[in-house]
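Dear all,

This email documents one entry for the complex benchmark we are building for the journal club exercise. For each entry we list the sequence lines for every component of the assembly. Then comes the predicted three-dimensional structure of the complex as a token string, followed by one or two observations. Please use this as the template for your own entries, and keep the labels exactly as they appear.
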Amino acid sequence: MTVNNNPFGRVNLACVTLRTIPSLIGSMAALFGVLPWNHLLAAPAITERAFLGQYCFRCHGEKKQKGNLRLDTLPRDFSAPLTAGHWADAMERISSGEMPPEQEPKPTADEAARVVEWIAGQLKQGETTRLAKRERISFHKLTREEYANTIRDLLGVNFDATDPTGLPEDPNWQGFERIGSVLSVSPAHVEKYFAAAESVVNEALPSTAPKKLSQRRDVFDLRYHGQRQAAEKLGVADTARVELWPHDGVDLGTEFPASGDYRMRIKVSGMKPPKGRAPHVSVYAKGLDRMLFENDVVTPEAQPATLEFTFHLPAGYQDIRLTCEAPGPSNLPRHGRYDRGRFFTTIKDSPTGRQPWQYKLSDEDGVPIRPFLIVDFVEVEGPLQSSRPTPQQHRLISSGSENLAQAREILARFAGQAFRRPARADEVERLVKLVDGEIKNGEKFEAAVKTALVATLCAKDFLYLVEGSVDRAKTHLNDWELASRLSYFLWSTMPDARLFDLARSNVLHQAAFLRNEAARMLADPKAERFTSGFPKQWLQLKKLGIFVPDKSLYPDYDAHLEKSMIAESIQFFREVLVNNLSTRELLDSDWAMLNARLAEHYGIPSVEGDAFRRVALRSEDHRGGLLTQAAVLTLTSDGRRHRPVHRGKWILESILNKAPPPPPANVKPIEPTPAGQPKATLRMKLEAHESDPICAACHRKIDPLGLAFDNYDAIGRWRTEETVHDGNGANPRVDASGALPDGRRFGDAAELKRLLVADADKVAAAFLDKLATYALRRTMTLDDRPALGALVARAKTCDYRVADMVQELIVSELFQSR
Amino acid sequence: MSNILTRSWRLNRRHFLRGLGASVALPLLDCMRPLRALAAEGAKPRRAVFVYIPNGVNVLTWQITKAGRDYEFSAPMRPLEKHRPNLTPISGLHHPGGMGTAHVCGDLWLTGARLSQEGGPYHNSVSCDQLMAEVTSVHTRFSSLELSLAGGTGTPGNVINTLSWSPDGVPLPAEENPRNVFNRLFGEEQGGVDVRRRNLNRRHSVLDAVLEEARSLRRDLGGDDRTKLDEYLTAVREVEVRTERLDAWLNVPKPKLDPSVSGRFQRDVSKSQAGEYYRTMYDLIVLALRTDMTRVITYMSGTEGNGLAIPEIGITQTRHELSHHNGDPEIMARLSKSDAFITEQFAYFLDQLTAVRDGEDSLLDRTMVLFGSGMSYGHSHGNANLPTILAGGRALGFKHGQHIDYNLPKIGSYDLANASGHYGICGKPVNDKAHLTNLLLTMLQKMEVNAEKFVDSLGPVSELI
């Protein structure tokens, strides 16, 4: 039995497939104890003490301690791991019906549900207390994304943290990747930190000028290898182009001379059929499993666009491919397709070149039949950084006497930046000693200093956000710590010069300065890291794609759609934040942020292009707010079918901040529909199992929240019938109606949204809790309740406007507390 | 610095290793071993490999129903028939701390930890492979190897990607890409010995400097309040030790492999070619063992979140999806097929280990291999009666050839036609003394780890020794 409420594991719930859900009904006892409508539940109250006395103590009390368990004296300290384990064990056995045993008097389902609910609530509280435990000095490891951002600001070098040569992926806790107590460091991490530090320091301060690459691939390099002369003879050497069918591509494998930033330029036309999808350019580095660039491209045949983008790569050969990602029949396998001596061209009436209509890419009027690309050339150049001495060499090392005094000065300055506070003399001396040792080992001054820079980047004070001091149990952050908290909250990187200045003057903690800074920082482009990072973690968007939708059931689902789904939720949050809208809009809105791909997915007309823009919604679009966004509806599905219980659980976790307790082990599976029976919706199967009163007692609090979204399939498309594979006859109609435990009824998702909007206070409180978790890098506990409560009250006066809430959090006591 | 530097090495010349499959002699093993170790342990290496099956199995078809020596392999296990003298299937084992942990079972398969009671938000304990590595690492270039279908650590308590945990209970990130692993093991570093020694020396100085700084804070902090700091200190210190070890191995050239061997690991193997992917990983493990790069390897052949779909035999769902079959006969049949497929790949692994000679013995005789899962009946997350097969290690003292069954003495016989009855056996231990840690303890002792007990073990499995 476990105490954690992790989304896919400890809580069995999140990883059962849809059809097993009713089987879990018996286990979900503890859910609604904290929800607003719970007190209206019509069961007679029985205190946990009375319950335990009546049903448990006879065997686990003063006289007998069966199984070595004594409950009457078991402490109620749920934050103590061992005690919590015993309580969790007891909860498990009660909720599964194992206890009390058969020959003993049995509690009613409601009584059992109540005591399980009580224990689960206590355990949850105990868990958050442990998670948030503050040490005298706390160490919050930078996530790998923050590491890369910080390196960029510190050294002006891009570090590819997610490459195989990068850093290990960070574990998350309910979506949050930055919880200090969850992030750990193993020897493998340290090896990678060392390798990363060496590589970024060498790139910033190269010992020799890096070789440059400047390469242009024309059509004879891309496809018509060795046929330039033949083309010249035919007179098409200047007009030959390369057409790419859907899924077709050309290889751009290149030896990159040095680690650094490179620029690629692609001259290309993108042909979109009038009613079809746009062709999508993707440039993918296979060995790194990294998309270097992707975008829809639509330009006339005769007026190609030049796409230009930069990316960072390590030195060495990279297997890169430019592909036309678009649906449609591929011409692969392409045997005989590119006949030697045949050249594709878009010059009308060219006697010697093959034209689009001849390939059946266009009709005879030149209107595209399927999406395709026409490529003219691809150029790569780089590294783009200026050669030795690099700006960093100027800035960090400059010229000097090349003695230890200069080293001391360089390292004090660098460590002061890297540690995000002034470096202490003893710290600097350790680094200087390292330089000294290296010089004695025969290294030149610059090389020796670089070794000390590497050491700085492997130091705990760089890798962790360190708060607190040895001397005393501080309750407040100092200004340097505050600058880092603020900066990593809104920018996911180190403070800039202005924040450092305010910290040095010791004025940053003053409300007026903080308010100013918060506004300045939110207006900065770096704030995009907050506007994307926070919703990604809060809404657990990373789960999208864990269960990849089955290709045979959902052929439309592809990487571009998945990316667009995630982008929608991020852009939606961004729009709410930037316009300082109310949290109410998060639940329900009459607008959406869409690109063409997603609009097509939703069946909303007249949205063109890959860029997201605000679109007004009609009621028949059945969208608006987060809950009916494709990302949310898909990440709570299992790739084959929607999962109402998981949808309910997601709403409880992410929107209402009330994670349900774990179900017991080994619940009985529900049976598939026997052969010959009419097709049944999932809902009908769920209802068939509500005959078990223990199940029903709890699941009626979760399931309605999820069933309300039955009108959306496993990839979030609207439907009125559920496609069912087992059973006979027509697909059954969807019934999305239901009732909250307090009796308020709703007919569908739209009506449920309105009920949630009416509970705006609760939703805003949950939102603030998530925001504070992200900002403070720890979970919120009972101790934080008063501070959070005060913030919610303040937020109410400004109609729960999101940007205001961010501001108020930053100037709050809570934000400055350890 | 450790005295390992002063050791003399027997090997001074380049060695060539050709071919993988056939029974090629293993010239490398003896040459590369330090003299001191030769004298100390009678020269015979002991090795251990752990292979994880994700999401349990179709227990209705997997279960062997007869105990003892004349048992019959169940259908999915039939590929193992030819290795019968070299293996022991075991039924009825469980981790007491694993009951009801659902997919967290992967976290504790080799640790046996009772995760909910260990304090903190999440705290695991050392996995048995790492205890073994402490003993074997003095002999090899790499102390252990962590492999997985998915790289990194994954998320502890959620979907873990690694089987291995440090003595501090920190997950050790796994590698998923055979090419990266191969290059790490066999790739030639730039520069001559002197350049590389200088590089290692520099790394050592850097680690020394940051360690010194962290230790001084650690002293100031005194007795408590130092979990994350200690974690950092331990990790840096371990890398220091590894640096010293690499330095000690500098004079020993890495084995030079025939391009036909190395080429196999330089191409990209798509995970959609499941069989090819598994066999590449298994070949890599065999290669690492036969060249004595390491003696301890864990391989999570699939995570609880993603056990490979097997398009080549028409299975398009992951094992997680198959395991939640909800009683659907079609899906259950596919799960059995998937079980048989991964067992067949495992049999291939045993074939390869058998084919390689290691002195008098085969590589399999000197390598103990555990093949199993932390889950049995995946559909309802049953964590008892865990699928478990121990293979190999006869030369290390293991006796094989029978099916050890801890359920039968209590239940009399299996009734697999009664599905819910058998699911019950998989959800709740029949014999509460049949701890998986008993088996792990037996393995630890055969690896000459000085251990009387491992977590909640009650004693070694006497039938095996």
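Observations: The radius of gyration of chain B is 22 Å. Chain B has 15 helices and eleven strands.
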